[in-house]
Design brief:
The complex is a heterotrimer of chains A (about 300), B (about 290) and C (about 375).
Chain A lengths: L16 H34 L10 H6 L2 H33 L3 H15 L3 H12 L4 H8 L13 H26 L2 H9 L4 H29 L3 H6 L7 H10 L4 H37 L1
Chain B lengths: L7 H28 L17 H6 L6 H32 L5 H13 L2 H12 L8 H26 L2 H9 L4 H30 L2 H6 L7 H10 L5 H28 L8 H8 L7
Chain C lengths: L3 H4 L3 H6 L7 E12 L2 E12 L3 E5 L6 H9 L6 E6 L2 E2 L11 E3 L11 H11 L4 H14 L15 H13 L6 E4 L7 H18 L3 E5 L2 H7 L2 E6 L2 E6 L1 H6 L4 H8 L2 E10 L3 E6 L5 E5 L8 E6 L4 E4 L6 E11 L2 E8 L7 E6 L9 E6 L5 E4 L5
Parallel strand pairs in C: 3-8, 3-9, 6-7, 7-8
Antiparallel strand pairs in C: 1-2, 1-4, 4-5, 9-10, 11-12, 11-14, 12-13, 14-20, 15-19, 16-17, 16-19, 17-18
The chains are: A mainly alpha (about 300), B mainly alpha (about 290), C alpha+beta (about 375).
Chain lengths: ~300, ~290, ~375
């Protein structure tokens, strides 16, 4: 007898397609109108402003300004601090996510809670916590002095170290969550299979595990890089003059110098770098997806 | 990686490093909570004597905190209402209808979440400054909604996707009209998700700094802006107390969300499962 | 917007379509549905009497579910009409059709208790509270669920959940209840048990049911009439016996009985019989009378269970038993027919005197069990 499979056909459940479309458009209207007026339009007006000279003529000189002298070095500082943050939060995130993925469910839940809860506490408050901790008489230096470490107390604030500690702690929840998801997605049987073929620990890690998680690592790193670019609070409160980032500059130009056009040009630059990063994330993700597909077949 | 587990030393090292990283995340928060009760706010840690002075100082005469607190609460409440209206309609459109350009609408919703907030804030400043609306609570709330509404939309999309659409078909087959289905089937099942959306919209607005700073005026200052100002300009020890209150509020909000989910789903799963906490962290269930 | 007030059929309407109603319950005329280039349902027409249990039987993609969904209103036909009683419901929303629907996935409302689930359609119809309590209690009792009323759906087993879903669909006595593979998610034993229960309830209450399944056995157990569907077409709509004994197409013969097909040509007609000269073995097979011209190439369909063993050279063909598998009360045998290089003929004979491998046997068939199909029909 012919074997019949139960796979149901795609349920033909759409009643009156045109009415469903009308309802969809009606319900999508609020969000679309809202974001067009309060999000897209403002960004375009920023773009126009960045291209407009004081007399209203079209110009690129705000961009020339933004890419020369102090402004350029601020841009480089921004990229440097973001890269340092991305790297550190990636390494810490990898270690922590890996450790959590081996814990028993209850402890994994507790650890995840410690990762997740700070994420919902204002960045401003957490930065303040770091300022208290990293001061000359803060917890960290007191501890280090107590251990009679030579050179203690250290200067941990108002320099690049302070900024990177701060931004890394802000980014860490993102990377841990992303990498934890990626690691849970790794088919453990693949590793067991490799072991059964006689592969050693390091070989398995390098040849099997790392290639499987590397797209996730790349996108997590890129994401924390992108998100660090626009940081303002932490560098402003925990850094010195040499850690001025682009967001600080935008803020200063608007609030103190009334130099909107220059601020707009820098905003657009920040936006462009962000888009480039997002494009890379997308590329990496699709690469990872195709790799997973191949490993599945 | 199961292979690495075999060495005890490796396991101990990994656990130790992981603990240090967890401390790295948790300590700044613990330190604030402890310091807020310390007699000598900027001296050694742990404190030698305890006090409630900083909390009392928050509400002393001439304190700027009550005004900032009530402004932030007002703005967050408005923003929550806007976000829920936008969230419910948008999530319905994206999950329960045939929407042309669906992916474009979805990208538009994700936009504010991936674009640097300083850029969004600058754009809003350019929009509201010519309208002489700087310092208006409405303007700040409208601005915050740009960030809060997408979060509400994502949470509600996940919520509606989690409700079997065919339950609505089942109700329809028995004769329930669209309003009845919404009221008696969809709404009760979506309630935990709506509570979560409301709470996350509220926190997003309550904690928002960039937009607030650009849109505030001298007399209308939201709580985060006041915290920032007191950290940069005038050292006010009460800032520790207000920070502790903000931490407590955030934890309370997360607990409420978890509770709503637990009660609503009636699932037997533990409150403290990894999936649960991760679900709270990534409410939309979407990664960028 | 379709609003509640308009939707609610009066209590009288709901009650009137009761067991005693006779005549036409539902009719479908020239129903057609396409998805792009694919014709999902092609000009389906049928009339279903009140109190009848009708099954749409077919493989996935045969159009059975689409037809059901169009009757329910979850899917709009391109053309054709659907009439419930005397009411044309073709363009009505599902909620205005006053039909019952039982889904494969149960779809009980998770936030309501069992009683609340069953009461739901009654509250929509504005039935008074006491009446609701009475009818919910009665219905749960019929389904053997008394005492489960206050439970939540997730506390029930799959079989119990589907019983609740059944209660929910019949509590308001819709004139027709539609069921979409309701037992598909259950294991075999439970399925058999619930088939009997559904059939009993249907007969006791005189319900009109349209049932969709891909399981032939289930269709045979439950149905008064079965519509066998393939590629969007109703191949045959008949009683189980007719389908089994007088299949109108080779597909039906194969689908319900897994028939053997023997190619041959019409050789001769007698008053009651038609004789077919088989291509392979050259034997002469006697079938009941078919009006086909002499010399027409045909396929003779005989179900394995209707073939009989005789002495060698005594039947329409002779062969060697290649395989003999004992399956409980039956032996399934494969016989290699002399002079025929087609796949072995399949036989099912009572286990007692079953053939053994290697044995030489003759094969006979009652002419009434032989159905002839002109080869042009394909299959």
């Amino acid at each position: 007898m012919a074997a019949l499979t139960t796979t149901a056909p795609a349920r033909p459940r759409k009643l009156l397609a045109s009415r469903k479309t009308r309802i969809g458009i009606l319900y999508a209207l609020p969000v679309v109108v809202y974001l067009l007026v309060l999000f897209v339009y403002p960004i375009f007006s920023t773009l126009f402003l960045s291209l407009k000279d004081t007399d209203g003529a079209l110009t690129l000189h705000w961009y020339a300004d933004a890419l020369t002298g102090v402004n350029l070095s601020v841009l480089f500082t921004t990229l440097r601090i973001s890269a340092e943050t991305a790297l550190l939060s990636l390494v810490f995130g990898f270690v922590l996510a890996n450790a959590i993925s081996r814990l028993k469910p209850l402890w994994a839940g507790v650890a995840m809670l410690i990762v997740v809860v700070p994420h919902f506490i204002s960045a401003l408050v957490r930065t303040y916590g770091w300022i208290i901790m990293l001061g000359d008489k803060g917890l960290v230096n007191e501890t280090l002095t107590g251990l009679s470490l030579p050179g203690a107390p250290f200067q941990l604030l108002y320099n690049e170290l302070g900024v990177v500690i701060g931004t890394t702690s802000m980014m860490l929840p993102y990377t841990v969550l992303l990498l934890y998801g990626v690691m849970r997605g790794v088919d453990r049987r693949l590793l067991a299979a490799a072991a059964s073929m006689g592969a050693g620990r390091i070989t398995i890690f390098r040849r099997i595990y790392l290639p499987l998680v590397s797209p996730g690592l790349a996108s997590a790193g890129l994401l924390s890089f992108i998100l660090s670019l626009g940081y303002y609070i932490t560098p402003a409160l925990m850094g010195g003059p040499n850690q001025t980032m682009i967001a600080t500059l935008i803020n200063q130009q608007v609030m103190k110098e009334n130099q909107w056009n220059g601020a707009a040009a820098q905003g657009v630059l920040l936006l462009l770098i962000t888009f480039a990063g997002l494009l890379l994330v997308k590329l990496v993700t699709s690469l990872g997806a195709s790799r997973r597909k191949r490993s599945a077949t | 990686m199961m292979e690495l587990r075999s060495t005890l030393a490796g396991r101990i090292v990994l656990t130790a490093v992981a603990t240090v990283i967890l401390l790295f995340l948790a300590l700044p928060i613990v330190v604030i909570l402890v310091t807020s009760f310390s007699n000598n706010a900027f001296a050694s840690f742990p404190p030698d004597t305890w006090t409630l002075n900083w909390y009392q100082a928050l509400f002393a005469d001439g304190s700027k905190w009550p005004a900032a607190l009530s402004l932030s609460a007002l703005v967050a409440a408005l923003s929550t209402v806007f976000s829920l209206i936008i969230g419910v309609t948008a999530a319905t459109a994206l999950t329960r209808s045939e929407l042309p350009l669906r992916s474009a609408v979805y990208a538009l919703v994700l936009g504010p979440l991936v674009i640097p907030q300083i850029v969004t804030a600058l754009g809003l400043f350019l929009l509201f400054e010519p309208a002489a609306m700087l310092g208006s609570p409405i303007a700040i709330a409208l601005g915050h909604t740009v960030l809060a509404a997408p979060i509400a939309v994502l949470i509600l999309i996940a919520t509606l996707r989690g409700i079997d659409e065919r339950l609505e078909d089942a109700a329809a087959s028995m004769g329930a009209g669209r309003l009845t289905i919404a009221r008696r089937i969809t709404f009760p099942l979506a309630a935990p998700g709506m509570i979560a959306a409301a709470i996350f919209s509220f926190i997003t607005s309550f904690d928002e700094f960039y937009i607030s700073q650009f849109l505030s005026s001298v007399d209308t200052v939201t709580l985060p802006v006041q915290v920032y100002n007191s950290l940069t300009f005038e050292i006010d020890p009460s800032v520790t107390a207000i920070s502790a209150i903000l931490i407590a509020l955030a934890i309370l909000a997360l607990a409420l969300v978890a509770l709503a989910r637990w009660l609503g789903s009636g699932r037997q799963g533990s409150l403290l499962s990894v999936e649960n906490t991760a679900g709270v962290a990534n409410p939309g269930g979407e990664t960028v | 917007m379709a609003e509640h007030g308009v939707v609610t059929p009066s209590v009288e309407t709901a009650g009137a379509a009761s067991a005693t109603t006779t005549g036409k319950a539902l009719s479908v005329v020239a129903l057609r549905k396409t998805y792009g280039d694919v014709v999902a349902v092609d000009e389906a027409s049928m009339e279903i009497a009140a109190g009848e249990f009708v099954t749409f039987l077919g493989a996935s993609g045969s159009g059975k579910t689409t037809t059901l969904m169009m009757i329910a209103g979850f899917c709009e036909p391109d053309s054709g009409t659907i009439t419930v009683g005397d009411r044309d419901v073709t363009r009505l929303a599902p909620q205005k059709r006053n039909l019952g629907f039982v889904f494969q996935q149960y779809l009980l409302f998770p936030h309501m208790s069992v009683s609340e689930n069953v009461a739901f359609p009654l509250t929509l119809r504005g039935v008074p509270k006491n009446e609701i309590r009475r009818r919910v209690g009665e219905t749960l009792e019929i389904a053997g669920l008394s005492g489960f009323g206050s439970r939540k759906p997730r506390e029930l087993s799959g079989g119990q959940q589907q019983r609740v879903a059944l209660c929910r669909a019949l509590v308001y006595r819709p004139p027709v209840i539609l069921m979409d593979e309701p037992l598909g998610a259950l294991d075999k034993k439970l399925r058999d048990q619930l088939q009997v229960e559904i059939k009993t309830i249907q007969q006791e209450l005189g319900l009109t049911v349209i049932y969709v399944t891909h399981d032939q056995e289930e269709a045979l157990v439950l149905s008064d009439r079965i519509a066998v569907m393939r590629n969007g077409l109703i191949e045959q709509f008949d009683t189980p016996r007719e389908l089994f004994e007088r299949p109108r197409t080779p597909f039906v013969a194969d689908f319900l009985g897994a028939a053997n097909f023997l190619p041959g040509r019409i050789e001769q007609h007698t008053d009651a019989h038609t004789l077919v000269r088989l291509d392979g073995s050259g034997g002469l097979l006697k079938a009941r009378r078919h009006d086909l011209a002499i010399g027409t190439p045909v396929k003779a369909a005989v179900q394995p269970g209707r073939l009989r063993v005789s002495a060698p050279d005594d039947g329409f063909c002779t062969g060697t038993v290649e395989t003999a598998t004992y399956v409980g009360t039956l032996v399934r045998a494969g016989v290699r027919v002399d002079g025929d290089d087609a796949p072995p003929l399949r036989l099912e004979v009572p286990a007692g005197r079953g053939p053994v491998t290697g044995e030489r046997i003759g094969i006979t068939a009652d002419p009434d069990d032989v159905n002839l199909f002109p080869t042009e029909q394909g299959g």
